[in-house]
Amino acid sequence: MPQCKEEPTEFDGYASRYNDLRTCSTGSGRNAITYYDEYKVRHISRDLRVRARASPVRILDYGCGIGNSAPHLSRHFPGALIVGVDVSSTSIEHARAQCRCLDRVSFAHLGDRAFAGGELFDLALISNVLHHAAPSTHSGIISLVKSRLAPGGHLYIFEHNPLNPLTRLAVHRCPFNANAILLLARQACSLFVGSGFEEVVIQYTLFAPACLRFLGFIERYLHGLPFGAQYCARATAPRPA
Description:
Strand content: 15-25%
CATH topology: Rossmann fold
Shape: globular
Order of helices and strands: HHEHEHEHEHEHHEE
Oligomer: single chain
């Protein structure tokens, strides 16, 4: 099972510099980092529309860090209740400060009782989290998130693509990725299947850097090619028979 006790984590020491470290490791500006954060949420929104799925009412951002996804989730899914959880207490403090003006957005430490109970979520996001966790904990993390999804709810996982050499270089440059173990897309797929998810799909993403974002319309035709900087693994929680 994933760590749930409120103990110091390595990300407590990176929270205040998190975005600056990302900027340095990718060689891009802060606007590019914002683009990459929104890219994932936009991908989810478009995927749900293409599949004619209802817009989510409750969204879980597992491993939310300092809350970079929350503003984009709030904008692309207006009216949805968004809950971010993380093992890093310091990151949660930064997330609350960064997103204090956002309505219907809250953050909690993973060990908080408030997260342990309550209503189920229609959508869950795990963005660039699993490569920071020990492989032995991956199944536990997926099972935990699945337990918080409503039947028919969707889980989207975004991970760095280890088949892309530029991705590997950016990961190597970033201090908080020192212990990262990148997952192949097929490994993420196996996690879904092993946890009993349905409708498992892998899509490769981020074929163009932020400076070439105008080429983004082409990416929808490239999702099957394993050359994107990242990939998205999507699955659906089983519905009652």
